[in-house]
Design brief:
The complex is a heterodimer of chains A (321) and B (312). With 321 residues, chain A is an alpha/beta fold. Chain A is built from 11 helices and 14 strands. In chain A, strand 4 and strand 5 form a beta hairpin. Chain B is mainly alpha-helical and 312 residues long. Helices cover 63% and strands 3% of the residues of chain B. In chain B, helix 4 packs antiparallel against helix 6 and helix 8 crosses helix 9. Chain B is globular, with a radius of gyration of 25 Å. The chains are: A alpha/beta (321), B mainly alpha (312). The interface between A and B is large, with 45 and 42 residues.
């Protein structure tokens, strides 16, 4: 048997993280979460604590309680060291409008600690990467919203961070700009750059992230791989046919199947005469049971699938984890 | 700081083979070169601010003012050297010509106040107005580093603009004098007095300019606040002096324009002159230094307090 592949350490770990502001507002309340490497969505409504989380990750404020570790470094012990390995893209406008994109990105590369020559080279590469190579010598003030967002992304990436914090990267973008931005964000983990993307647009997270961390009013709602979380519906949808006709001449296959598995202790809800939603949470062998029962009744099995939940479903029906 | 090649191998790149070779999608190249910390970050902000104040990498309009000011500040020195050269053979006939002393020339640098009123708000206010600070402070840079970098930039330029004309004056006078070495030895004390006095002036202007500019995100407000504060304090001090019988008053210490000139006088002469409005007053020198330090340290306290906490 082959040994299990080594598990990469999380890029962010927080424990008992609490942030209470002097005005009495509790932005984060005892948060415990480990953010794995890769693309991770930080999801929550406005006021959920996303920006506070970013401030704490960057070491700009000290938590009321708890600890934060980014890329294996304690933020409390070495905030400057953490910031030298983290890129940040704010949601709001933050660019000096009278500078060219090349000057701007290079300057922030230097402020991140790169030598001047390397910063200019990296700035050129990053503007190329985000598709602004042609416009690099134009003042940022003349850029469209999409170009400014991409300039901000280039600024966040110029020092080759281990982790990049993106705050609502698609805010204010038109559909084409949004597609371009999501395409860029989706490529980053392939470059070895972990992404923590704060947003309330769950569709964006579902498209480009592998993991999600959902917080609400400072509490962790859920965290985990999106694939697994969206499978946890506990409902199987079955389409069958070829059953005995009922009094109105309609196919009674789904009704017959529901009655048969009901006798074996499994709940089912009729969707239509051929479709049935079956509860899979009570028995581990529900799939086998359905297959066998369909065979015993002589029905035709058209489809059998686990119903996937969307992140919207998870967020709307959230509860503390 | 580690060392190594500036870029690493491409990540995510692909090679497309062809008949004559291969076309590479460069992909993403990680950076594996040296990385600096707070010092390098602060130096980068300093360089950015100096470039901005001098109009470098900006349009020609932004260059006109600072370089014109340097030229204007240098004109008296050039004229003095020219006159000294012209009358070198007949100094008796032109004995009444009043050459500016090195001490007085430091006072000419007061004109740099206009430069500070424009450049300090220009270095400070746009960062707050355009919300650039979150980008800055998400780097290995603290609020204190940022303030030191901005202060250092304004100080360096004011010092340079105040000191360079004095160098022109000194070297020029030395060259046109009968004996360069004699001139040098006769005036050797200015070698330390001039830079010390100009540094006093530059530190004062930089601190006051940065402190007032940090209170607003509008450049015009920052500039007007500096000029206005200086003029109002000067007017108030003038009123006190007018009201006194001997044209000097302890209350002249509120004159923010005269305080650095008073320290300059102490450096050059060991006592304050009529420029401060405190000549002849017992303890005038101590009072001048105290007033200078209160303004300087108070300004620094305001500036650092404004950047103690940073927000996203």
């Amino acid at each position: 048997m082959l040994p299990a592949p080594p598990v990469a350490p999380p890029v962010v770990r927080v424990g008992g993280l609490t942030m209470r502001y002097p005005n009495g507002v509790t932005a984060l309340a005892g948060l415990d979460v480990a953010v794995p490497k890769g693309s991770v969505g930080l999801v929550g409504a406005n006021g959920a604590g996303k920006t506070t989380m970013f401030r704490l990750l960057l070491g700009l404020v000290a938590p009321t309680a708890g600890w934060v570790e980014v890329a294996g470094r304690s933020v409390a012990d070495d905030p400057v060291g953490v910031r030298s390995r983290v890129g940040y893209m704010p949601e709001h406008d933050c660019l000096p409008l009278d500078q060219s994109a090349a000057d701007l990105v290079a300057t922030f590369g230097e402020i991140a600690g790169l030598p001047a020559r390397a910063a200019r080279q990296r700035a050129s590469d990053m503007l190329d990467l985000v598709g602004l190579d042609e416009a690099r010598f134009r003042p940022v003030g003349g850029f469209s919203t999409g170009m400014r967002q991409r300039t901000k992304l280039a600024t966040a990436l110029v020092a080759d961070p281990e982790l990049v914090l993106l705050d609502e990267p698609t805010a204010g973008l038109d559909p084409v700009g949004r597609e371009e931005m999501l395409g860029l964000v989706g490529r980053l983990s392939g470059f070895g750059i972990s992404v923590l993307m704060a947003t309330h647009l769950l569709d964006d997270v579902q498209r480009v992230c592998e993991h999600v961390v959902m917080i609400d009013r400072g509490h962790l709602v859920l965290a985990g791989p999106i694939d697994q979380l969206t499978q946890r519906t506990g409902v199987m949808r079955v389409e069958v046919g070829g059953g005995p006709a009922d009094g109105d001449g309609r196919d009674g296959a789904a009704r017959a199947l529901g009655a048969a598995i009901g006798q074996r202790g499994v709940n089912a809800a009729l969707v239509d005469e051929q479709t049935l939603d079956i509860d899979t949470s009570r028995r581990d062998d529900t799939f086998d049971l359905v297959r066998d029962t369909v065979a015993e009744l002589g029905l035709r099995l058209y489809s059998l699938s686990t119903r996937h939940r969307s992140l919207d479903d998870l967020f709307v029906h959230r509860g503390p984890q | 700081m580690s060392t190594g090649p500036l870029v690493g191998p491409p990540a995510g790149g692909t090679a497309v083979p062809g008949a004559l070779g291969a076309v590479y999608d460069r992909g993403y190249r990680p950076y594996v070169g040296p990385r600096g910390g707070r010092r390098e970050a602060a130096l980068a902000v300093w360089r950015l601010s100096v470039r901005r104040a001098l109009g470098l990498r900006r349009s020609w309009r932004q260059k006109v003012f600072p370089w014109s000011l340097l030229a204007i500040a240098s004109v008296p020195a050039i004229i003095e050297v020219g006159v000294a050269y012209a009358i070198r053979d007949d100094p008796i006939e032109f004995a009444d010509f009043n050459f500016t002393t090195y001490r007085e020339y430091v006072g000419v640098s007061t004109a740099l106040l206009v430069f500070v009123a424009l450049s300090a708000p220009d270095a400070i206010c746009p960062d707050r107005r355009h919300r650039v600070l979150p980008l800055m402070f998400s780097r290995p840079l603290t609020g204190a580093d940022y303030v030191w970098a901005k202060l250092g930039a304004i100080f360096a330029i004011v010092f340079g603009f105040g000191f360079l004309p004095q160098v022109v004056l000194f070297v020029g006078q030395m060259l046109v004098s009968d004996g360069a070495l004699d001139y040098f030895t006769d005036n050797a004390d200015v070698i330390w007095k001039v830079p010390a006095a100009v540094a006093v002036l530059a530190a004062y202007y930089a601190a006051l300019g940065v402190a007032l500019a940090s209170l607003t995100d509008r450049r015009i407000v920052g500039g007007v606040a500096l000029i206005g504060t200086i003029l109002v304090s000067s007017g108030v001090a003038g009123a006190f002096i007018e009201a006194s019988d001997d044209e000097a008053s302890v209350m002249a210490v509120v004159n923010l324009l005269a305080l650095p000139l008073g320290v300059r006088d102490l450096i050059f002469l060991g006592h304050v002159t009529e420029d401060t409005g405190m000549q002849g007053i017992a303890g005038g020198g101590i009072l001048t230094i105290t007033g200078y330090l209160v303004v300087l340290l108070g300004s620094l306290a305001v500036a650092f307090a404004r950047y103690r906490e940073v927000d996203l």
